[in-house]
Every structure is written in C-alpha cells, then in structure tokens.
Amino acid sequence: MTSENLDQRRPAPPQRSDRVPLGILFMLGATVMFAGSTALSKWQVATYPFSEVLLFRSAISLVTCALLIMPRTGLAVFRTQRLGQHAARSATQTAAQACILIALSMMPLAGAMAINFSAPLFATLFAAFWLKEKVGIPRACALAAGFFGVLLVASPGADTIRIGALFALANAVLYGSVTAAVRGMSNTESAETLTIYQMGFMTLFFLAAQPVIGFTMPNASDAAAMIVIGVLNGFGQYWWTRALSLAPPSAVGPFYYFTLVWAIVLGFLFWGDIPTLALLAGSAIVVGSGLFLLWHESSKKPLPSA
What we know:
Elements: H1 3-9, H2 16-45, H3 50-73, H4 83-104, H5 109-116, H6 119-131, H7 137-154, H8 163-185, H9 191-213, H10 220-246, H11 249-252, H12 258-271, H13 277-297
Helix pairs in contact: 2-10, 2-12, 3-9, 3-10, 4-8, 4-9, 5-8, 5-12, 6-8, 7-13, 9-10
C-alpha cells in the first residue's frame, strides 16, 4: 500500500474540541492496563532478574502492538525520518522502566506508584521548555493540586529516602521527559509508528542486557504470567502514546493518577497492603484534580451531580 493510499483511507483527524476528551479516554484505559501489568511484574521480579521480566514484557508488547497496528497500516508504519530520535526516546523509556521495576522490588506497589505520579509535573516542565507549550492557569492549578495529593500519599519523612524511592523518582523524571518527547515527535510521527519503534528498540536494549544482568529460565506458570504482562503492557503503551498524540501532557497527564486507585486495590489483594488515611486522602485529591481537568477540557460542561 502506498503512503498516498494509506493517507486517503485514514479518517480525518477530529477537531480540537474532540481531541482532548478522546486523549483522556485513551489515558484512562492505559492506566488499567499498566496497573495490571505492573502488579504482575512486581510479583515476577521477586523471582527473576528485572531485565528478564522487562525483556519478556517488551517482546510480547511488540507482538501485541504489531497485531493491533499492522493490519491497518502495513509496513508503512515503519516509515520515518527520525530513527535517531526514536532510538533516543526508547533508550530513555528503557531506563525509566528499569528504574520503576527496581523500585517495585524494594517497596510497596502503591508507594512506588505514588512517587511515580510526579511525572506529569516534570512532563509539563519539559513541554514548557522544549515545546513552548502554554500550561494555562486551570491546568496549572490541577497539576499543583495533583502533586500535593501525591506528596500526601507518599507521606514524605525520614524513612522515605530509600534506594527504592530514589529509583521511583528517577523513573518519574525520565517518564516526564519521554512524555514531552512523544508530544514533540507526534507532529510528524503517528501514534502507531511511535509505539512500534519504542517496543522494538526496548526489546533490543533489554536483550542486550541479558548477558550482563543474567537470565533464569521461567517455569510454565511464570512464562504464562510474563506473556500476560506483555499483552497488558502492549495495550497500555499503545493507548498511552495515542493519548499523548491527541492532547498536551498537561491535559492528559493528570489522568495517569488513576493508576494509583488500581495500585491500592491490587496492593491490598496481592500483598495485604492496607491503605492509610494519608494514602486515601491524597488519592482523593489526585482523582479530584483529574476530574476537574476533564470538566475543563470538555468544553466547560458541568459535571453531573451525584
């Protein structure tokens, strides 16, 4: 299929008023996929090297994304003039995922995810500096409220400066830069191209790490779990990239906070982590900021009363 025919078959992009709410919906779907994948990854990293878990996740995600994307695009999805930027962005994403999985091996699921939720703040800063995006007062207030909620959830104190927490914070900074990079590259690259190259490069990077970090042959049940991890992550990565290609990071970023809700539930079900009052209060603030932004971006339509 030629690029001209492919472009003719693509539906016209939605208008600006439609793009942000659609991006928000993609981000919400991604949070569900990421939460399930992250919980299973935490379970597996207790037995297997983190690079091995991430290798399986990336490789299976690549297959999943290819099955979702290539029936519609064919080989045209690989056409790009920004291969170096794809590699650099994927290298950053590789480091980010390594950091968060190391953090998950050292601390509770909800705690690691709470620290990770400072990523949208870094994404907004990177977008403001690199892409010259205007945040606006409503979005800035929503982000500030969300960040305060994250601090409340994390309950920072003398016992929170741990190696695991530092890895989680490093992931947040790297994730924020990747978020801004996706937004900048989406001017010329489709969400499909961004996702395929990310999964492909990450698979290569984690494969190269196996001789250094080590590999343990998984048993049948663990291999099945790793496949599920990859499938969930594949859907999450595609929907996450799609969200960022439709709307600014400051608009869809706060909705990544919903992963915290799923993390609290999964942490309790799998590891018996009982949420504290600070965790619940902070989560309410985080979710509230996301709902306010949804109302603001949806043509300022009021939220229905309870």
